[in-house]
Amino acid sequence: MKRLQENRIDQITQYLQASKLDPELLPEILDHLACEAEESLWDGKSFEQIYQNMVNTADAQTLLNLSVDHQNLLAMEKSLNDIVFENRNKSYGAYDLRKGYGQTVQRAVVMGVAFFLLLVMFPQLYAKLIPDPKPDDIAYIVEATPVDIIMEEQPVPPAREEPDPVQKTVKSVTPEVLPDNEVPIEELPPVVDDLQNAQPSTETVDGVDNLEVIAPPVENAVAPKAEAAGVEKRKEETFTFVEQSPQYAGGNEAMAAFLRKNLKYPSQASRAGIQGKVFVQFTVGSDGKIENAAAVKGIGFGCDEEAVRVVKMMKDWMPGKQAGVPVRVRFTLPIAFQLD
Q: Angle formed by the axes of helices 47-57 and 6-18, to 10°?
């Protein structure tokens, strides 16, 4: 089959446009006329004859009638909103409101009916879920056992007998005269000169002067306790805030140098690109020693354990003081892990 050239198709298109054909019908009419023209060319007719017959058959009036009929058919398919807003701005908002008005009213009616039914059925549902108590329902059974109370009589204390008054006296012994052999000999304490070369004792013995006596050691002897019996040692208090905070020996610069030297970045955290701060909490004792080190907030991937390990390696701190006295202080130290 022979094909129309582009200039021939443009000539037919210009004719249809000049006849004021509806733009919606233009592609269909053009396709129909082009097909008939190609069939006529196959029969041996010239394009001039075909074009003249086309103009006579599809004249301007015929094309106008087709456009009017097409508009009428479209109007029958359009809704009232499309007819009202024809050739108007539909994107303003009023068109969408009118178009969705039916669905909005339908949803509002359904919700209203559902809410009304819920209000009507709520008392019945409540009565089924929580029934009214019945007279024969027993919630609790309380059994009371009678108790006999016997009043005990308090014993009457015996009457205290007051001693008879005694006359105040002063010791006054009448001296008695005895022979010399019956008079008891009074033991007077030794003088200082006698104790220079002798030890005090219950009796006087004529022995060796300055004799050193070595006592044997006592087996399984218990060392005396410095604390008094029955007195517990007072537990040392741990402070959070003190007048003078504990400090690393050498200051913050020395502590930073210690961390840079001993802190090792965990390989798994380095591979995962993990970085951040690990907060390690520990107690600085009154003697400056580190105790109870633990990570209270960390980033994982081995960084928490590494921070605790390095803190435990620190040497003794300068303890915190309260009222000038060294005390135990709870301290929190942030340790940063940062990739280069």
A: 20
